[in-house]
Design a protein that fits this description.
The chain is of the alpha/beta class and about 270 residues long. The protein contains 9 helices and 8 strands. It has one domain: Rossmann fold.
């Protein structure tokens, strides 16, 4: 996707916010092939935040981000979708690991349909089980299958996520899993991260119960402090539904984030 795509994808809930909350949209660093379904909804060019999925590749995006913050910041908060969540979540966890006494670079973060690469957690010293790796690979394949179903895309558009395609990651209340058993969030023991090593700023985690990649969203939620964390299931897939009730709910979560941020001036995200 690109910055214009992000403008369009978030318009339905941003429209419900007042003018004190301003947004800046940025492109990824590298030209990239889009996910198979993206061209049906958004025009090129398309970008990614890194090439490859190794810690070294991810840290390249962190170097750019540090320069961006030094040049144009500070920003009160960040709102991310999909791979963007991985960029900021990993940036915050590395910051916490290497600069635990310095203030976080943002006051709040809103993650939509995204998690953090397991390779980053391993680079930070966490033990990642084979089960967690299996879930990761399995859900990537499921998402790929969903986004290559041209007939469903053309017939149903964003509503295709409600189709009957097999998705055995489904469960009655996936959000409850992270609350009840943080030692096994789709194979990941998130209790390896102490409260001091977790992302400590207020966070919002928005995921879709029909998103094959929702395990990654829930794992990330468990790497953030529960007392300043909100979790919301928008009921859709790997996207941002534009239904009125979803837009109102997300706008409400943005307002909550604003209240959690320090100061009373306009919020810049």
């Amino acid at each position: 996707m690109n910055s214009l795509s992000s403008v369009l994808a978030t318009a339905s809930f941003r429209y419900k916010l007042d003018d004190s909350i301003t947004f800046e949209f940025v492109d990824g660093l590298f030209p990239s092939d889009p996910a198979p379904d993206v061209p049906y909804f958004y025009a090129p060019p398309y970008y990614a935040w890194w090439e490859g999925n190794t810690p070294a590749s991810v840290r390249t995006s962190h170097t750019w981000l540090q320069s961006k913050l030094a040049r144009d910041g500070p920003y009160d908060g960040v709102l991310l979708f999909s791979q963007g969540c991985s960029v900021i979540a990993s940036f915050l966890l590395y910051h916490q690991a290497t600069n635990p006494t310095s203030p976080p670079p943002f006051k709040v973060a809103i993650f939509i349909c995204g998690g953090i690469p397991l390779s980053i957690l391993e680079d930070l010293g966490a033990k990642v089980s084979q089960e967690a790796h299996d879930w990761d690979q399995k859900t990537r394949v499921l998402l790929r299958e969903k986004t290559t179903d041209a007939a469903a895309i053309l017939s149903h558009g964003h509503d295709r996520w409600g189709s009957s395609a097999k998705d055995d990651t489904a469960e009655e209340d996936p959000g409850a899993k992270i609350m009840n058993n943080p030692q096994d969030v789709f194979g990941l023991d998130t209790t390896q991260f102490s409260e001091h090593s977790k992302i400590r700023i207020p966070t919002v985690h928005i995921y879709g119960s029909k998103d094959p990649r929702r395990p990654a969203s829930l794992q990330l939620a468990c790497l953030c402090r529960a007392e300043v964390r909100k979790i919301y299931d928008h009921g859709g897939g790997h996207d941002i539904p534009r239904r009125k009730e979803v837009s109102e709910a997300i706008a409400g979560l943005v307002r909550w984030s604003v209240k959690m941020a320090e100061g009373d001036e306009g919020i810049r995200a």
